[in-house]
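PROTOCOL LOG
Step 1. Enter all chains and additional molecules of the complex.
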Amino acid sequence: MSAPDPYLAAALAEAQRGYDEGGIPIGAVLVHEGRIVARGHNRRVQQGSAIRHGEMDALEALGRRPGSFYRGVTLYTTLSPCAMCSGAILLYGIPRVVIGEHRSFLGEEALLQARGVAVEVRDDAACRTLMARFIARHPDLWHEDIGDV
Amino acid sequence: MSAPDPYLAAALAEAQRGYDEGGIPIGAVLVHEGRIVARGHNRRVQQGSAIRHGEMDALEALGRRPGSFYRGVTLYTTLSPCAMCSGAILLYGIPRVVIGEHRSFLGEEALLQARGVAVEVRDDAACRTLMARFIARHPDLWHEDIGDV
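Step 2. Run joint prediction.
Step 3. Record the structure below.
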């Protein structure tokens, strides 16, 4: 078994933090030149937010940066990014996205790849387990978060 | 000349409010069953935000809603929606988007249409004028907002 990726582990720690807060357990970190520059997790429940998905929360934590900064960023997220988060990745020209898993939810990976973003899916068991546990317990919250009717 | 659209006028009022605050003048409103249910404007400058575009700000102002609610929403925005905002429209299944203008910036209209969203561009002179004035005065802020290097 390979050593755990410290960046994906940090994204998972954010997801776990969200879970412990009673929220939707999806976490993300932004890595720039080997360093974690921002962390975030979904805050739909905690802040009553429709836009604070884990990836968006990390982008907001990073704050205002010039476009050139994002070109050196890798986004790590525990779950395949939805259309909104994928759109944010495209807006800012983030060139690489590492995804914990996409079995619970398959986001806009094909769109990202079609636009030249490098996408890696790790199929991480810990990411899958946390998400599956949450969806089984709170299907209503989960469907709300992905805009399902 | 046709009567001004009250919803687009409300979006433009939001854009003007942002301009008056020293921000990027892009505004949006969400209309549900003929009623404006949320208003928003770009808050990059005002809140140091990377995710509070006008459309996102309106979605956040609306708050948590079931997916079924968004199916009856029309989004009015003064400017063609970027990849992030278009992604949010797709995530929540908003079926119709009315755009003040797309000469200053052409967003992801083709993607929205390809996914079945009805897109109307009004080519509104007041929306164009406000945006052109801002871009001429603050090209740096504008390029930052759309992720340009």
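Step 4. Note key features.
The longest helix of chain A spans residues 6-20.
Helices of chain A lie at 6-20, 44-47, 54-62, 67-70, 83-92, 109-114, 125-137, 139-145.
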